[in-house]
Amino acid sequence: MLQRNLRRSGSYLLAMLLVLGILAGCAAPAAQTGSEASSSETAAEPAASDEVTRANTLIFAADLTDLISLDPAVAYEFGGIQVVGSIYETLVGFEPGNAEIQPLLAESWDVAEDGDMWVLTFHLNPNAKFASGNPVTAQDVLYSWSRAIDLNMSPAFLFTDVSQLTKENMAAVDDQTFEVKLPKSVSPPVFLSIISFSLAAVVEQAVVEANAGDDMGSSWLNDNSAGSGAYVLDAWDRSVSVTLNANPNYWGAAPAMKRVVMQNTPELANLQAAIETGDADIVQDLGPEQVEVLQGNPDIQLVSGQSTGLAYIGLNATEPPLDNPDVREAIRYAINYDELIALLKGNAQLVQEFIPIGFLGHTGENPFTQDIEKSKELLAKAGVAEGTEIDAMVPVGTGPGGIEWSTLAAKIQNDLAQVGLVLNLQQLQSSELLNVYRAQEGKAVFMSWGPDFPDPDGNATPFTNYEARSLAWRNEWDDAKAIEMSKAAAAEQDPTKRIELYKELTEYVQHNGPYVLLYQPTTTFGLRSNVHGFVYDPVDTPSITFALITKE
Question: Would you give the distance in Å from CA 269 to the centre of its chain?
Fold first, then answer.
C-alpha cells in the first residue's frame, strides 16, 4: 500500500476572509453521496477528535485560475488534476520520488498474450473502499473508464487514441477482477503509466448514477465527490478556493491535515505576503524576486524542483499568416531566447523541443537563436508585409517559472516588433482561455503543457497527432507525416531505435509544427517552517500529496 495514500483574483483580503469563514466549522462533514443512496452508502460522522482547527488545516495558495472541472473524466488542467488526485484513486500509481509503477486500488496485475492482443488482468485490493464505506469493485472501474470514453472530453484521447482502448475490450470478471485487452501496438508498461493519470480515477457508480442528470454527473461532481482517496470535496467556490476534508472512511492511514484549503492566488506579491504572514502554509510558483526576498527568513522553507512542463506559444496552422510554415519559422528566429531565460533568473532552462529534460528521447538540441535578418527574409519570402498584426491570447496571473504571463508576452511582443510583426495581446482567465483554445478559436496562444505520464509519448501524441484532438488539434495542425512518425515511435519496443525515431520526430516538429517552444521551468514553493512531509513530484498525480503533509 503506497505511503502517498497513507496507503496513495480578486481581492486577496476578501479571499482570506472567506478562508477564515471556512475554518469556522467545527468538524469535517460526512462524505457526500447520492440523494437516493441507501443508508449503507452514508459515511459515518467524524468523531469529536476530528475537530477542524487552524493547526490541522493546510492552506495551499497558488494560481488556480485554470480550474474548469473537478470531474476526473473531464479535468485536464494543473489545478483540477491536483484536486482530483487528492480525492480519487487509480488502479496503479507512482510513489513520490519513485519512477516505478506501484499498486494502488489494484494490489497486483498480470500481463499475458492472446493472439494479436495483450490481456491485462487487475486484482483489486479487497480493503479498498469509497468514502461512502462501500467497497471498490471491478464494476466501478468498468463504469468509470466507460464513462470517460463516452464523455469524450479533453483527456479521453489517452484511452481512445494512445491506448486504443474500447469499451468492448474491458470487463469486470468478478467483483475483484478487472480485465483489459489492448492491441499489440500498445506497450503494456506505457499503458500502466497512462492509467496512473487522473482520467483513469475510479468513481463510485451507484453514487454518480444517482446524480447523473443529463451530463453523466459532471456538473454534480463539480460540487460533490464519489471517490476513495484520502480527502472528499467539501466546496468549490469558483475563482476563490477549493476545500477538501479528510475522508472519515478512508481505507488507509488517516491524513494528519483534517482540512485542505486550496486558495486561488494568482498574484506573485500576494503569494509572498501569504507565506510571510502565515496566512498560507504552502505557496506555489514563487518568482525570482520573491525568492530573493524570502531567502534567509527563518520561518520559511524554499523548495525547488524541475517541472516536466513546457512553456510555449501555439500558432493556429490554418490562420493567415500563421498557415505558412515560413512565418512560423520566422517567429521562432525573431525571439531573443538568452534575454528570455535571463528574465527567469535561474527558474528555467532553454528547451525548444516537445520532450522535456529527463524523458527518454530528449535531445537537448536548441536550433533557434535570435536572427533578425533571417526572420525578415522568411517573412518576405512568405509575402508578409511589415506591420502585419497577429492576435494573441495570454493567461492572467503567474506563468511557469514564476514570471507573470504579461511580462513574458510583452517580451515576445517586443522581439516580434523588431521584424515588423505586431502582436496584439489579450489577457484572459486561464479557464476562459482554455475554452477558446480547445474550440480551435485561438490564433496565437501563450500556454504551458505538462505530460500526462512519464513516457515521451505523453507529449508526442498531443503535440503531433491531430486525430487525438489535443494540442495539434487545438492549433489545427493536421500533418500526416507527423502522425505517422509519432505512431511509429510510440509502438517501437527497442529503446535505442525508439530514441532515434523521437529524435527525427523532434526535428520535424521543431521546423514544421505550430509551436514556439520556449523553456522548461523550475517550480519554487514556499513552506512555513513547521510544514513537513512535503514532496513535489511532477510525474505523480497529484504532484503534491496532501495526505503526506504534517505540521508541528
Answer: 24
Which of the four pLDDT bands, split at 50, 70 and 90, describes residue 49?
A: low
pLDDT digits (tens, 9 = 90+) for 381-400: 999 999 999 999 999 999 99
Residue boundaries of the structural domains of the chain = 3-87+217-305+523-551, 92-205, 310-522
DSSP letter for each residue of 439-467: TT--SEEEEEE--SSSSTHHHHHHHH-GG
pLDDT in tens, 326-375: 999 999 999 999 999 999 999 999 999 999 999 999 999 999 999 999 99
Domain 3-87+217-305+523-551: state its class.
Answer: alpha beta
Q: What is the pLDDT of residues 444-494, one digit of tens each?
A: 999 999 999 999 999 999 999 999 999 999 999 999 999 999 999 998 989
Could you check whether 3-87+217-305+523-551 and 92-205 share the same CATH topology? no
Q: Which residues contact 102 (CB under 8 A, 6 or more apart)?
A: 2, 8, 92, 93, 94, 95
Q: Which 8-state DSSP code applies to residue 160? A: I
pLDDT at residue 336, rounded to an integer? 98
- Name, in order, each residue with C-beta under 8 angstroms of 196's C-beta and a sequence gap of 6 or more: 90, 92, 93, 94, 101, 453, 540, 541
User: Cα–Cα distance between 247 and 226 in angstroms, integer?
Assistant: 11
pLDDT for the residue 96: 74
Burial class (CB in 10 A: 0-12, 13-18, 19+), 19: buried
Burial (Cβ within 10 Å: 0-12, 13-18, ≥19) of residue 67: buried
Q: What is the pLDDT of residue 41?
A: 34
Q: Is 99 exposed, middle or buried, given 0-12, 13-18 or 19+ CB atoms closer than 10 A?
A: exposed
Q: Phi and psi dihedrals of 483, rounded to 5?
A: -60, -45
Class of domain 310-522: alpha beta
* pLDDT confidence of residue 353: 98
Start-to-end C-alpha separation, the chain: 25
How far is CA 357 from each of CA 362, 365, 531, rounded to the nearest angstrom?
A: 6, 11, 29
- In CATH terms, the fold of domain 92-205 is Dipeptide-binding Protein; domain 1 (3.90.76)
Q: Considering only CA atoms, which of 372, 423, 393, 389 is closest in space to residue 320?
A: 389
- Tell me, what's the pLDDT at 82? 97
Closest CA to 354 of 299, 312, 413: 312
